[in-house]
Structures
1.
Amino acid sequence: MAVWRLLILPALAIVLAGCSGEDKVERAVAAKERAGCPSAVKPEWQRLANRVKAPVYCPSWMPSPLDAEIGGQWNSGGALVDKDRSYLVGFLWHEAGSGDVHVNFRGYPGQTAMPRCIDRRRPIPCFSDPRGTKRIGNKKVTIYTVSRDADQWHVTYLWRRNGTLYTVSEHVAPPLTFRRVVANLDRLVGGLELIRPS
Amino acid sequence: MKLTRKQLLGAAAAGALGAAGIYELVDELAEAPDRATAGVLPVEQHLLAGMKVFEHEGVEVIEPPLHHQVVTAKLGVEARRSELQEARETLEHALRKLERRYDVTPAGLAVTVAWGLPYFRRYVPALASRHIPVDLRASRSKEAPVSAVLDARRFPSDPDRAVLEDNDVAILIRSDRREHVADGARAIFDEAGDLFELTSIRKGFQGGGFSGGRSLPKAMATAAGVPGADLIPETAQLFLGFTSTQLHTQGQSAIANFETLGLVDVREGYFRGGTNLHLSHIHEALEAWYLDFDFRERVDTTFRPRFEAKDGAQTLPQRPEDAAGEPDVESDFRRFGAIGHGGSIQPTSRLQMDIRGTDGKLYRKGKAIPLRADFNTLDNPFFWTADPERDGFDERPAAGVHFLTFNPSSDDFHRNRLAMDGVLPNGTKLPLAPRSRAQGLNSVLETTHRQNFLVPPRAHRSFPLVELLR
């Protein structure tokens, strides 16, 4: 009898937690994510889409303490756009002794081939060691555990849409574990809004 | 009653000897393999009968025991002949009792007792200077006699804080069954415990990943929640993803004995059948390994640049005929700016010519000399330590390896280890920055402790040379 009580009580607690105020907060956050790119940051993402003449993805959620404001306090140097219109938008929080939270968004308009990076004077894939695929919303993403250049030590989610390759990556470093980063990327990619050039 | 610090430490160590901690999970996660039974006890303490050899991914692999424990200690015995001889009898009695109770195989229990230079210097200095074998090759290089057993040293890629230890004794206990290891440790230290002041207890596991299901290292690291555990391949034998006990990578028969290859002069023969043990602990940065090196790079750096491997392979052939020589390592470095772990040590760890051993066996060119007994651990860096501050003890589990290897001499091991850092036996120093990415595997390893020990033959394993004191 006592054993049953031990088993039932935690189960009951879980059921009750499902109806708690905490759950309401979760639902509110989820609704906000479904609402898409926050209006405060959307104009800069729109400007990026116009500049690269291709759709870009703006996040509705970012891992704390980052936000998605291009040119904001966490953004590294605005949106970096190459001659071939490929772009990198990075957001970084760093505190000595505490760690990093670093998220990069990339797009390669008009390209679907794996981008190449230079390592010891030879071109190598920028993303390697694929670790399976998953469907998030309407995107079929491939997960890469080895990434190069500005994405070094990041887990990268990569997908293609209408002839363009996109990636979102996050750095695995304290305070984040690999598992946490994967959970963050699931949520991040699940909340992306496509911004078309206007 | 007020306990002294020594008594408190003794009580804590006694508890830790039999405690399983997280290693209890090994029994739940892996089944002990079927093993052959032992025949005659070998002269050597370091050889294990009944090891299972099987094929994995087309390569012959040795399956080592599942559970491992190393206990290090200083001696609490006065340097007097009568006390030492009594101590010798006590320890030998405990060891013989265990040999009557268990086969000396992984299915039973294997105990190896190794002695540090501090023991010889303090208790039997005159006899040691007469009997400890002399390394002939190292003596030729130095143009002066060099002992076959040397104090540990740091290597170029070792951090300055790596502790060079000075234990009197190390006892290695191995079995497929945790209760055998616990029983062995208790039997030795219940009977002979007064002789020892324990300095550390180190525990871990090996193997268990060949049946196709989730491997032991993967399951243990995941259960412990160590960073990078999720990135270990499902069936990997070791945390770093590759099998390391290929038949051809392990010294066979008596090749690692002092006397077999003629590298060492065993003088009057007291230590014939003995060997050198190097014992170290190494942290492994799993996230760095799996996030910074892709599969191809992990192969390049674990074996040799461009070493052939199917995608996702874990057990790669290490045939004698493919062993790299010094020109190969130098050529790899020139072409790729990097060296592989396996390739770089082969010029020193593999025979460079056929040699007829003193045991009458023909050891062919390319055969491995060292006999490794390393095992994965979640100790950080030890399961228990008498000096947590010095040893950097942390209760949080960490991925690592207790690296044990038997070589014919300390210098032989040192040559292997230097080669890993690009210092080749012909004196060539490849310009590799310590722990740089070009050093591959070394860049994710961090050695915390090192010591060399003399492993006497079984007949002299308890307080060696003491019976000769007059």
2.
Amino acid sequence: MLQVKAGDLERMSLLFQRHHRALFGFLFHLTQRREASEDMVQTVFYRMLKYRNSFTEGSSFSGWMYHIARNVLKDQKFGFDNKYDPIDALEDKIAGSTSADDSLEKKQSRQQLYDALAMLSEGDREILMLNRMKELNYPEISEIMGISQGAARVRVSRAVEELKKIFIKKGIKKDS
Amino acid sequence: MNDCEEYRERLADWHMGRLDAAAAAGLERHLNNCADCREALAATAFVLDSINNLQAPEPPANMKVDFRAMLDDFKAKEKKPVFRDRVWSWLLQPRLPLAYGLIILLCIGGAYLLGRSNKQGHEIQELHAGVQEQKQTMMLAMLDNPLASERIKAVSYTNDLKKVDDKVIDALFTTLNNDPNVNVRLSALEALAALGNHPEVRTGLIKSISTQDSPVIQLAIADVMLKLQEKGSISPFKQLLKQRGLDENVRDKVKQTITKLI
């Protein structure tokens, strides 16, 4: 990103190559909207190009990217809509699998999970989706959310506890 | 806070491998002796694994193409800032609002004084024309925005324009026939449908029938043609029916439209 900042804009295509899939997944899981997520990925990359001077040396690129993604998401004012895109319609498009090897149970458990996530607060959903990213640790998550690392830790733990309660309420169990 | 509560706050971090060695060892010792916390850990692990294993749909291939187009466009604009952009950025400088305020006040004052000398109507008309022109320039500039939602907004500004000239109509047709996003194309079609009293709009819409490949747009054009009672569309619709692989819903709709227009 520093090279992009220094004027080598072409380098952004490498960053796109490396990160667009994860970014698309993050936005999709938080909105359940395919086309809107596609548009938002473009917007995030456009904003990174436009505001490249705000990227500071030594900071994490992923942290910066998801921070911008969160703002784009807020601008769009999308709620989490677990009924928006019928999961079935997505089956053949799921990364790394085909509809043939995606069993009915898998589909059901995914739908159950989306239903459970819909019952969480927006903030809890967001922090859990950031927490699942391998490239993000507490320093990045706290930077993205604009809170301290300690607060980020506590919020992840509380969001997990909330989801555990929802799982119990909905009778979601291992192998259910 | 008792020990268990304190340890349970660390279960998620432990499962994600985010605890330092000492804290992890402490938690593991506690887990060895506490069946309740082991149960809590199993539930935490299940929740986290469910989320971590959640798969997103594969991003469509055209995303890369769209990104490439956006990047090339961005690079071109950076290289050679368009004169119009420079004018806009100069006009939109943050220190200028006060000046604008003064200009507007002066214009209003001027218009008032002129009005008193019986020239009011003419001057205000000019003022309106200026505002209209600005709106139009803004709309045309926004149609180049890389964000589909902004382009839709730009198209919707057509409704605010009292007088629509050829430039605007051309821009709307370019959008209808070339924009990569179907929603933007659809909004351009709606805007054009509202301009059905312009003969060139009708001709352009008829021409557009053969260039559209999205069933949604084809259905919408059929509706517009029916609404405008445009008999000139019958022949291109008949051509469209000959097209192989035409969506069945479109085929039915076009047949109905032709029958109703004849």
